[in-house]
Design a protein that fits this description.
Shape: elongated
Largest sheet: 11 strands, mixed
Structural class: alpha/beta
InterPro entries: P-loop_NTPase (IPR027417), T4SS_component (IPR051162)
Number of strands: 13
Organism: Streptomyces hainanensis
Distance between the termini: 69 Å
Oligomer: single chain
CATH architecture of the largest domain: 3-Layer(aba) Sandwich
Number of domains: 2
Strand order of the largest sheet: 2-1-13-12-11-3-10-9-4-8-7
Protein name: ATP/GTP-binding protein
Strand content: 5-15%
């Protein structure tokens, strides 16, 4: 350090004596918005952007957590599909319902829910449907007040789609693939029905009748004896007969019910009357999925969400999974986000459809995992490629908290429910989740961020022009 000028030293001493000590002048501190947000994380912008619906807040930073597959698609998301994993009682059902309610605030959104849970004669989504003035489409073979029917041979479904759907129904029921002869007998019967019935909708009864009593021209076309044709189609006829005159009658054995409103913002298929462990459930989901593919998904500007509870019925069946793989690939071009809700990943990756399950999981760029036991968490983390810290924290998660993996962006998120949503989300009727989920609801109700979240919901909606 160079010696100071003696004159300056004397001048500073004299000035200090007269006026007091002069403080050292410092340059002003300058900082960027990013630096300020790093110091005080709750002021930082949401990690996935600020456009979409509010889910809650990030646990470690306190930032608001906003998610929308349509806003993120093509930028942070290669696919708009979403997998939700979690045992009953951890808030999974509350997340589904608030997500749908918040998406419905956008005018260009349409949502279909396959509601596979419920009690007291109605599905779990019945309360929300009533609040919105919507009548659920209840599929029930035992209904006495007029069944709703979906026709697998509905003319709105392409001929190729009809045949693929028929094969899927039969293969799911048989538990194996159709052999070549049975498949050919089905193809001939289906072609004959479509060519010769023009004055009404062809129905499954027509197919069953032709399989049981094949026409001579069918045998001639195959260059085989008539008895051989009948033998080839016998197993197929017996399976389809369950939907016509057996335990599954009343849902798919007639023309599609007139008056199903496919323009409603929310369409709920109530499947709660169907035994979720029976072969009927994957058959039903296959028919609903294909029917929606050809009647509901249109090349317009609407954004569509297809939420399926008990989705392991789809992913764990090779034939059904193949149908939905096509739907998911097709849907991405037309603004469809598929939401699969599953209790355990082991339900789908260890079954007969492991290859098909892996393909569907690969298309789900968003994964939400609620609390699981340690061994289940490790298996889930290995399949989904989660970081080690996330796998270790999954068993410690409390109700309402989940690990979110959005194409590699992994966060622990606390789901928040607003006061207006709570009566629709937490219901005593949902026995499969009631006692524990209500505890989760109480925990959310005590969250100090809830009022702020509700205010931010309104603020975001106002800025984005949501009605």
């Amino acid at each position: 350090m160079p010696p100071r000028d003696p004159l300056n030293v004397i001048t500073e001493a004299f000035t200090s004596l007269l006026f007091g000590r002069i403080e050292t002048t410092r340059s002003p501190v300058r900082t960027s918005t990013g630096q300020a947000q790093a110091v005080y994380l709750p002021t930082a912008a949401p990690g996935l952007g600020d456009s979409g619906v509010i889910i809650g807040r990030e646990v470690y930073s306190g930032k608001g957590y906003i998610y929308d597959p349509f806003q993120l698609y093509g930028q942070q998301l290669p696919a708009p599909h979403w997998l939700v994993l979690g045992e009953s009682g951890n808030g999974k059902s509350a997340l589904e319902k608030t997500y749908v309610l918040r998406q419905l605030r956008f005018r260009d959104r349409q949502i279909v829910v396959l509601d596979a849970q419920g009690e007291d004669g109605v599905g779990e989504w019945n309360l929300i449907a009533e609040e919105l003035g919507i009548t659920p489409i209840r599929l029930d073979s035992m209904a006495s007040d007029g069944n709703v029917r979906l026709n697998p041979l509905d003319p709105s479904i392409t001929t190729t789609g009809q045949l693929a759907l028929l094969r899927t129904i039969i293969e799911v029921a048989l538990g194996r693939s159709l052999d070549e002869r049975s498949g050919f007998a089905l193809k001939v019967a289906h072609a004959h029905v479509n060519q010769n019935i023009t004055d009404r909708q062809p129905i499954l009864t027509d197919i069953v009748e032709l399989l049981r009593h094949p026409r001579p021209e069918s045998a001639d076309a195959m260059n085989v004896a008539l008895e051989d044709v009948r033998a080839w189609g016998l197993d197929v006829a017996l399976v389809l007969d369950r939907l016509v005159d057996g335990d599954l009658r009343g849902m798919f054995d007639g023309p599609t019910t007139v008056g199903i409103d496919l323009d409603a913002p929310l369409i709920v298929f109530d499947l709660s009357h169907i035994d979720r462990n029976s072969i009927a459930m994957p058959i039903l989901m296959a028919i609903v999925g294909v029917w929606l593919e050809h009647t509901w998904i249109r090349p317009d500007r609407k954004k569509r969400i297809f939420l399926v509870e008990e989705a392991w019925h789809i992913i764990n069946s090779p034939s059904v999974a193949q149908l939905f793989q096509r739907l998911l690939k097709f849907g991405r071009r037309l603004g469809l986000s598929f939401v699969a809700v599953v209790h355990h990943l082991s339900d789908v990756v260890d079954g007969a459809a492991a290859k098909e399950a892996a393909a569907i999981l690969k298309m789900a760029s968003t994964r939400t995992i609620y609390a699981q036991k340690s061994d289940e968490a490790r298996a889930t983390g290995q399949v989904l490629g989660l970081p080690r810290w996330a796998v270790e924290i999954i068993p410690t998660l409390t109700p309402g908290m989940a690990v979110w993996d959005v194409n590699g962006n992994v966060q622990v998120v606390k789901h928040l429910v607003t006061e207006a949503e709570r009566p629709l989300v937490f219901t005593d009727r949902a026995m499969t989740e009631s006692s524990e989920v209500l505890l989760a609801g109480e925990a959310l109700a005590d969250d100090p961020y809830e009022a702020e979240t509700e205010a931010r919901v309104m603020s975001f909606e106002k800025r984005q022009g949501v009605g």
